[in-house]
Amino acid sequence: MKQLYSLLIISVIFLACGRKDAPEPFGAVPSERQLAWQEMEYYMFVHFNVNTFTDKEWGYGDEKESVFNPSALDCRQWAKVASDAGMKGIIITAKHHDGFCLWPSKFTEHSVKNSPWENGKGDVLMELKQACDEYGLKLGLYLSPWDRNSSVYGTPGYLTYYRNQLRELLTNYGPIFEVWFDGANGGDGYYGGARETRRIDNKTYYDWTNTHQIVRELQPGAVIFSDAGPDVRWVGNESGRGSLTNWCLLNRDSMYPGGDFAKILGAGHEDGKYWVPAEVDVSIRPGWFYHQDQDSLVRSPENLMELYYSSVGRNSNLLLNVPPDRRGLLNEADVNSLMAFRELREREFKNDLAKGKAVNGTNTRGNGFRASNVNDGNPETYWATNDKQTAADLIINLGQETEVNRIIIQEYIRLGQRVEGFKVEGFADGKWIPVTDGTTIGYKIIRKFPVVKVSKMKITIGKSKACPLISNIELYRAPGE
Ligand code: FUL
């Protein structure tokens, strides 16, 4: 009897939600690890190593281990700042192009174990892992494929070395959310004293398919980043600019890290076979590593806000580099800017004007997919139209004349990215006035527009590859014009 009762309840819920009528996925869809990554949106990049002490951006590989000697290294400070800033994780340069390792790798002498820091007993990655655990942040790792210190770089032996290091990293530091494979590859370097130029073939040398397999085997929850994915792609520039048209899709089969793809990485491929969303990596300073003479050149909170709009606001995640100084601390100049940026963001998106307001759609698939799903605060519910309907309007009734100048729109990407064109209008003085428009939406877009005083907002999905699925809409009146 009890069982029958439960069955009845389950069926009623099922029917009420109309899930039996759920739309089919369209095209490539994100994996669970990619979905978890999309939701992170904003996290910290940390460039820190011998370069911090030699004042360089690219170390040659001949730096003495003894130069690495932070006077007050405190990964808990980094993690606290990241968490206070609203970031969800930290990706650190475990090894940059100079080959120096921030952990005591078994496979090289060129690491913290031969530095004076903590008498050679220290492990920056372990300290950072513990700090991230304490502050609820996820940890990611950058392991430079190019190694200007290694005597075997350029030979097949290097691949064994590189993979040994990768295994070490992915085994000893708990769950890793992202593994970052850089595209800068080959050139001049120390190479164990050879001091010469070594070129490799980007396409074949690293045998990426099998190198990626190691990540899958040891860290199935980690996304793999590179110019060409497979899970997350570079956005094609280091200046913080996501593309307005931005497909989370890529035909990556013939692509590889370090290839000449910058031009297509912004928009991705509309007909892409794989889900490979863009990540915007950019530094809070001109350089990736700390240089004292750049203390006055730290991006202002307003500038960071612009970066936020041009990255998270354009369907990309923001990986913001904040390099620790020679003490091993995030510098006051950077911390102040980050905290003021957080306040700006909170002020900008303070009071969601769409929340609790009546929403109607010109087409709705059925009960479980009603228009009001877009402002119910639940990312798992969404408004959907009938299968054949690829254009439709949503009208949010604000109840009274209301000033608005920001909109957030999100697609329900679990079933694919669909929207190709949208526009937003506001109802004022008896007519609809244009507010903003665009092409793709994807996981999230945030749009600014001059203040309008309107009683209703209309979101028109003008063109979509399949019936549009919208999971969230928010409206704000941010301070200023
Ligand atoms: C580049 C590297 O060459 C830079 O030094 C930096 O690490 C940046 C994030 O990626 O390709």
Please tell me what the overall shape is: globular
Oligomer: single chain
Please tell me how large the radius of gyration is: 24 Å
**Could you spell the SSE succession in H and E letters?**
HHEHHEHEHEEEHEEEHEEHEHEEEEEEE
The major sheet is characterized as:
8 strands, parallel, barrel
Number of discrete helical segments: 10
Which molecules other than protein and nucleic acid are bound? Answer: beta-L-fucopyranose
What would CATH call the architecture of the largest domain?
Alpha-Beta Barrel
Average pLDDT reading: 95
Helicity range: 10-25%
CATH top level assignment of the largest domain: Alpha Beta
- Please name the CATH topology of the largest domain: TIM Barrel
Q: SS-based structural class?
A: alpha/beta
Strand order of the largest sheet: 1-2-3-4-7-8-11-12
Strand percentage, roughly?
25-35%
